[in-house]
UniProtKB/TrEMBL annotation:
The keyword Secreted does not apply. Belongs to the canopy family. It comes from Drosophila lebanonensis. Residues 1-19 form the signal peptide. It comes from the Eukaryota. Residues 198-223 are annotated as: Disordered. Keywords: Signal. This is Protein canopy homolog 4 isoform X2. InterPro entries: DUF3456. The keyword Signal applies. Residues 38-189 form the DUF3456 domain. The gene is LOC115633825.
Length: 223
């Protein structure tokens, strides 16, 4: 008799926990929080790592690798840009670069994560500069701090980097001449289903070129 009562009590407690979690998630969603999905996190990791490799790949240094106790045998010489050292240095702190991103809430696709100030905050800063009082519920000095969606994506980046370290290494040494890291890491390994890969094709719209005012014949020119 006690067993059914115990089971009912456990189910009630479990339901209460789930109800609390659902309420928590609903509260976050009510505040407009929408965390990065795996596609967005992988896309930015691949973008930033390739950018970092582009920076370190400009070196034409030749390094010596290997170790000898008596230092008699010559060490192996290799180009830095083809070395494991370059990969390790590029991987180090690469996820810190995620914190350079901002959340552009005026966009709905993966380009909502982008560098530079969002259009919304440009407008708000403009109002403050004009003397308008703007109350966002947070101190003004925190306006430009990375939002929770970005700091959480940095954690996603670090976890993904640890989980797919061998996949990245294989691409670096064997495949980077054949395909991009975004294709190899994200499309071929991280995102198993086709519908998960949609964000990989999304790009920031090209900036509009400012209109050039052409002077008509007869227009007076200021001297």
């Amino acid at each position: 008799m006690f067993a059914p009562l115990l089971l009912i009590a456990l189910l009630v407690n479990f339901g209460s926990v789930l109800g609390t979690e659902d309420a928590h998630l609903s509260a976050e969603e009510a505040q407009g929080v929408r965390y990065a999905n795996r596609c967005e996190a992988c896309k930015i990791l691949a973008t930033e790592l390739e950018a970092r490799l582009g920076e370190t790949g400009k070196s034409h240094d030749v390094i010596e690798i290997g170790y000898s106790v008596d230092d008699v045998r010559p060490k192996k010489r290799t180009e830095y840009r083809r070395s494991e050292l370059r990969l390790l240095e590029s991987l180090e702190n690469v996820c810190d670069r995620v914190l350079e991103y901002n959340l552009h809430k005026e966009r709905t696709d993966s380009t909502r994560f982008a560098k530079g100030m969002s259009q919304t905050f440009q407008t708000l800063h403009g109002l403050v500069d004009k003397g308008v009082k703007v109350d966002l519920g947070i101190p003004y000095e925190l306006w430009d701090k990375p939002p929770v969606e970005v700091t959480q994506m940095k954690t996603q980046c670090e976890n993904m980097l640890e989980q797919y370290e061998d996949t990245i290494s294989d691409w670096y040494f064997k495949l980077q001449q054949d395909k991009t890291l975004k294709q190899h890491l994200c499309a071929d390994h991280v995102l198993k289903r086709k519908e998960e890969r949609q964000c990989l094709q999304e790009q920031l719209p090209s900036p509009k070129k400012p209109a050039i005012n052409k002077k008509k014949k007869g227009d007076n020119e200021e001297l």
